[in-house]
From TrEMBL:
<dbReference type="Pfam" id="PF00912">
    <property type="entry name" value="Transgly"/>
</dbReference>
<dbReference type="GO" id="GO:0008360">
    <property type="term" value="P:regulation of cell shape"/>
</dbReference>
<feature type="domain" description="Glycosyl transferase family 51">
    <location>
        <begin position="89"/>
        <end position="264"/>
    </location>
</feature>
<keyword id="KW-0645">Protease</keyword>
<feature type="transmembrane region" description="Helical">
    <location>
        <begin position="42"/>
        <end position="62"/>
    </location>
</feature>
<dbReference type="GO" id="GO:0030288">
    <property type="term" value="C:outer membrane-bounded periplasmic space"/>
</dbReference>
<dbReference type="InterPro" id="IPR023346">
    <property type="entry name" value="Lysozyme-like_dom_sf"/>
</dbReference>
<keyword id="KW-0328">Glycosyltransferase</keyword>
<keyword id="KW-0573">Peptidoglycan synthesis</keyword>
<dbReference type="InterPro" id="IPR012338">
    <property type="entry name" value="Beta-lactam/transpept-like"/>
</dbReference>
<keyword id="KW-0808">Transferase</keyword>
<keyword id="KW-1133">Transmembrane helix</keyword>
<dbReference type="InterPro" id="IPR001460">
    <property type="entry name" value="PCN-bd_Tpept"/>
</dbReference>
<dbReference type="InterPro" id="IPR036950">
    <property type="entry name" value="PBP_transglycosylase"/>
</dbReference>
<keyword id="KW-0133">Cell shape</keyword>
<keyword id="KW-0121">Carboxypeptidase</keyword>
<dbReference type="GO" id="GO:0006508">
    <property type="term" value="P:proteolysis"/>
</dbReference>
Length: 712
């Protein structure tokens, strides 16, 4: 037998012998260096400094978590109020029916504490053993390359804090914050309060939060009536609500229930005899839970949440679960009416051949302050915070932009509502841009108000070319619509925008016409109050900006009254009411001929309300375009909406008549003055002998009347 050491062992022994003196010298040098610079003390100082800094930071985190509001935020849903301060519904995603601890059976309290935190009444928010166990497992995971904590070590208070304040991310930083905030919670609340908050906000699967709703969902009884086996089953679900769901996994749920019963024995809450008896009990599920729908106005509430997030930097989780009071400009009557109208398919064109419905969106707002009173962002099934066509869609507005891009700036630059425009087919620029009237017929000349009322394209572009594209471009910007330098061309006058607009933006622009030239910014929220009663958002005095004169706004209204009285909006006019506004449409460009459109718009207003409505397909192709010959169209929808909305407004009258009436009166007055002037001139010779004074007075009167007509 060969007892000689292997070649490798001999080589390793020789290497060790050679390195030994070098290692010895290195240790001596390191020792002298260590003592000379007192590195041990420095390491202790650095460690303590880092510990103090971290502790200070975490203390600040805990103190600024506002745990004094925790109970209020958990027990109250976020509630939405309308423009009159009346409750309109609630927002919540992680809340159930909140009940006091004395209405929760001691059976569920004992089973939860036995399972989740036996030392709950002897800890101050955290467990030393739990932290040590979590730290060991954290170190192990780091060695294995896993960036998370396993094993938990969380007390019941820590679980409450994690759900209320933190994410489910399993990292050391989150764990450290959890511990410090838990200590703060224990400083503020009693153990009974903490247990009550936990049980009311724990998740029990199937979309159910809190023991009261869970008791109804699985056993059709209140939380105060839970038996020991029933309580043990609910407690068992806390670690994995889906895995131990008694509906989907009854065998696993029963097995887990029996584990909890045994844990209650170990925690001296049951005797072994009792536990064995309960383990033999059948698992019977009876669903008696009825969820109330408090999200009554889905598109409006979606828009409120979006505004709170995008404008006021709140998170969706906080909005849904922090017990805020959100005050809005909602008119519940208008909103309910609009929702009812959208649910009635007879108000819309027929579906396409493949069954795709024509989509639509409408928004109503108060022109005096910009507050949105009603909104519906589409047809069909609503998806929570899904696409809202009324506020998020961007489509070209077509002729609905003409008052903004062409006619208002024309009035500002010396034109009048009855100025004569050229109505001829002609080309402009090097690219031979040639706008056409809808029916490709032209009258040569037309008054401005008729060109607008009949939505004639040729005179509109001619007028924009006369005043200058830049003036139209600046006007569109002034009215708050999104434009870029690419839009500085004559197509702007017909709604050819590069990015498009939403119904909300278009309605907002028209507030200037309805409100004496003052532009109001559309908004939903007026005030937000947190659970403690502190106002964190105040938008009650929304600002308005004077962008055109009252005179121009008045003339524009008179012209747009003609749109509904004798123009393209005639079939959209609600019976018995005066409405001003403009229609619009865009060509589909996928089907030859005029009878094929991508978008249909109509914006109408009174001094009390502005309504913008759009119809079209989400995706336009040869099979999905709007037919202009359809009897049921945007005008039908708009008329139905306004017929419902206007009776519930103040019904404030316009301070002007439609342009056609003004022009008719002006013509009649002008004829009368000319006749009078002619008669006066013919009798001039006869009156010479009566003296020049009387003739001068007559001429003066005629001149005053003429000036009045010109200034009309």
């Amino acid at each position: 037998m060969n007892n000689q050491p292997s070649r490798f062992r001999r080589w390793f022994a020789e290497l060790k012998e050679w390195l030994s003196p070098l290692w010895h010298r290195f240790k001596q040098v390191l020792k002298r260096f260590w003592h000379r610079f007192q590195l041990t003390r420095w390491l202790i100082v650095v460690f303590l400094s880092l510990f103090l800094l971290l502790s200070g930071y975490l203390t600040v985190v805990a103190k600024t978590a506002h745990v004094s509001n925790l109970k209020a935020t958990l027990e109250k849903p976020t509630r939405v109020y309308d423009k009159k301060g009346n409750s309109a519904g609630s927002l919540y995603s992680q809340k159930g029916t909140y009940i006091s601890l004395d209405k929760i059976s001691t059976n569920i309290q004992n089973s939860v504490l036995s399972t989740e935190d036996r030392n709950f009444y002897h800890e101050h928010g955290f467990s030393i053993k739990g932290i040590a166990r979590a730290a060991v497992l954290y170190a192990k995971n780091k060695v294995l390359g896993r960036d998370y904590i396993s094993g938990g070590g969380s007390t019941l208070t820590q679980q409450l804090v994690k759900n209320a304040y933190l994410t489910q991310e399993q990292t050391f930083t989150r764990k450290a914050k959890e511990i410090f905030i838990s200590i703060e919670v224990e400083n503020v609340y009693s153990k009974a309060d903490i247990l009550m908050m936990y049980l009311n906000n724990a998740y029990f699967g199937n979309g159910v939060w809190g023991v009261q709703d869970a008791s109804e969902r699985y056993f059709n009884r209140s939380a105060s009536e839970l038996t020991v086996p029933q309580a043990a089953m609910l407690a068992g679900m806390l670690t994995s609500p889906s895995g131990y769901d008694p509906v989907a996994h009854p065998a696993a749920a029963k097995q887990r229930r029996n584990v909890v019963l045994q844990l209650m024995v170990e925690n001296n809450k049951l005797s072994q005899t009792q536990a064995d008896k309960y383990k033999k009990t059948a698992l019977t599920i009876t669903n008696g839970y009825k969820q109330t729908d408090t999200y009554k106005y889905p598109y409006y509430f979606d828009a409120v949440i979006n505004e709170a997030i995008n404008k006021y930097n709140l998170s969706e989780e906080d909005i849904m679960n922090k017990g805020y009071k959100i005050y809005t400009t909602l008119d519940q009557n208008q909103q309910q009416d609009m929702q009812t109208i959208f649910k009635n398919d007879s108000n819309f064109p027929a579906d396409s051949a493949d069954g795709t419905p024509v989509q639509a969106a409408s928004i109503a707002l108060n022109p005096n302050n910009g507050g949105v009173t009603a909104v519906v962002g589409g047809r069909g099934t609503h998806v929570f915070r899904g696409f809202n066509r009324a506020t998020q869609m961007k489509r070209q507005p077509g002729s609905a932009i003409k008052p903004i891009a062409v006619y208002a700036p024309a009035l500002e630059n010396g034109y009048y509502y009855d100025s004569i425009l050229q109505d001829k087919k002609q080309s402009y620029g090097s690219n031979n841009y040639t706008p056409k009237n809808y029916d490709d017929t032209y009258s040569g000349k037309v008054t401005m108000y008729k060109a607008l009322a009949q939505s004639l394209n040729a005179p509109t572009v001619w007028l924009l070319n006369k005043i200058g594209v830049n003036k139209g471009y600046e006007s569109v910007k002034k009215f708050g619509l999104p434009v870029t330098s690419k839009d500085k061309n004559l197509a702007l006058g017909l709604g050819g925008l590069s990015t498009g607009v939403s119904p909300e933006q278009l309605a907002g622009a028209y507030t200037a016409f309805a409100n004496n030239g003052k532009l109001a910014t559309p908004h939903f929220i007026t005030k937000i109050v947190d659970a403690s009663g502190k106002t964190i958002v105040n938008n009650q005095n929304a600002k308005k900006k004077q962008i055109i004169s009252n005179k121009v706004a008045k003339q524009m209204t008179s012209m747009m009254l003609s749109v509904f009285n004798e123009g393209t909006g005639k079939t959209a006019k609600p019976t018995g009411y005066s409405v001003a506004g403009k229609t619009g449409s865009t060509s589909s460009d996928v089907v030859n001929g005029q009878d094929s459109e991508r978008d249909k718009w109509i914006v109408g207003y009174t001094p009390d309300v502005v309504v913008a409505t759009w119809e079209g397909y989400d995706t336009t192709d040869e099979s999905h375009t709007l037919s202009d010959s359809s009897y049921v169209n945007t005008n039908t929808l708009f008329k139905t909406e306004m017929t419902q909305i206007l009776p519930n407004t103040k019904q404030t009258a316009f301070d002007t008549k439609d342009a056609a009436t003004l022009a008719k009166n002006k013509t009649a007055s002008s004829t009368s003055i000319w006749d009078e002037f002619t008669n006066g001139a013919s009798s001039f010779g006869d009156k010479v002998s009566q003296g020049a004074n009387s003739v001068g007075q007559k001429a003066s009167d005629l001149w005053s009347k003429a000036k009045a007509i010109v200034g009309q």
